[in-house]
Amino acid sequence: MRFSRAFRTCDSNDMNITAGTIRVIAAYGADDTIAYHRENHFTQSINLLRELPVAGLSSPKDSVSYNITMNNYTVPAQPTTYGCAFVPLPNVNGKHHIYKIEPLIQAGNELLVHHILLYACPNNTNISIAPGECYNTNPLFFQCLQVINVWAVGGKAFQFPDNVGLSIGSPDDPSYARLEIHYNNPEAKNFTDSSGVQLYYTKDLRPYNAGILEIGSALSFLFIPPSARSFRLYGLCNTQKFPEVNGQQVADMQVFAYQLHTHLAGRAVRVAHYRNGSQIGFLGRDMTYDFNFQEVKYLENITTIKMGDALQVECTYNTMDRRGITEMGLGTMNEMCMAFLFYYPKNNVSHCLSSPSATDIMNALHVSNPKDVNSVEWDENKINLLQQTIQEGKQDINITNSQIHLFMPGSFVTDTGYLYNITEGANATCNNATFSSLAATSAPNSSMTPAMNEPNLNNNGSGSLRGSVILINLALFLFQAALGASLRPPNRSP
């Protein structure tokens, strides 16, 4: 099928077509008869403006695939498990590049596997441990910190641009990785799992080695109050200390893709980019975030991070359906606020995470013990007070070196900073007086920058950007849906 529509119609009953997640409702039939659709209908999240470089990327002729999976891992009968295993990377003769990574989810476990991470291990890693739970008292699973693959529910295979790959096989490259799988098991069932990832690699080297930087909020003393319609948490990263972590000057980082991550209460995520104290754009943005649709997204244009730039992740949550606080943590009913930036050339920084002062939060709420926040009687004034305390207080920043085991000397560098204002670009004015602008009001002294990957909208509300991408994406979406709607598992819910 084929259709066309302005990205922005200036009709208050229409949704703008943006680069964020869009929920599509569809119905279909075997012929052109117009009738009630009965069972032939569904809803699904899709990114209509997603860039599709994979279609234009090459697959090397000497491509080899390699599976990294759990081996019938026994998942405990508990709601949340992070299972870990040390696994060998491909044993190759000389340097090769991984150019594509695809998830392998064991049939029947699709609703249990929440996310998969693969961490590179320094070559002095102690791997003499059987698979087990990642974040218990055994420190060995804390050894490997450099993310080399990230997949979450709703994601698909990811292929690197033709000039970039993950390096394996050289003396400085890892021989082992740590496979981490988050199992969301709300019914506390007993089951085994052999999920993982499939790597595709080649000896046809690309010019650059890829890196993945994790930024956002540390899993520290931080929480979201109940009955909050729109509550924001933040993660701040100052890159000025990256050279100190690396022990040498660091080249400009060329960001080509990103992945955003929260849990069930997340509604929007933005990654703002600052230089010399002023916002210059976004490195990632989804104002209609869907927990069930977490995929790696390519930037429309490669964006340069220079040393000294600041990066700020903002996550917006809705807890109107919750009676108690939602803590930052590992469980699906806990929350996270993070972004993964895919870039080149690789350096040794793996994480750049921040947290507000626990003392400031407790003082604002007049509690003397962190556990006492569970007994706070929340109302709108207290929610606003906590929000203001987080936004105006100091952020403590930790920058981690992937080449040194955590808690060893030199494994991380600390920094401090204060949050920046985040500004959306202003939309053009609609001629239609009934249209209500969705552009955010800019904060004082903030720079006005265009929203990343948004269509260029003129005064009559029309758009003229990447129409063929919309048609291709929608056609693929409807074709897949018509074939497999009856087989698709239901969306996860809290």
TrEMBL record:
Transmembrane segments: none annotated. Residues 1-29 form the DOMON domain. The keyword Metal-binding applies. Belongs to the copper type II ascorbate-dependent monooxygenase family. Keywords: Copper, Disulfide bond, Glycoprotein, Metal-binding, Monooxygenase, Oxidoreductase. PROSITE patterns: DOMON. One of its GO terms (molecular function) is dopamine beta-monooxygenase activity. The keyword Mitochondrion does not apply. GO terms for biological process: dopamine catabolic process; norepinephrine biosynthetic process; octopamine biosynthetic process. It comes from the Eukaryota. Its cofactor is Cu(2+). This is DBH-like monooxygenase protein 2 isoform X3.
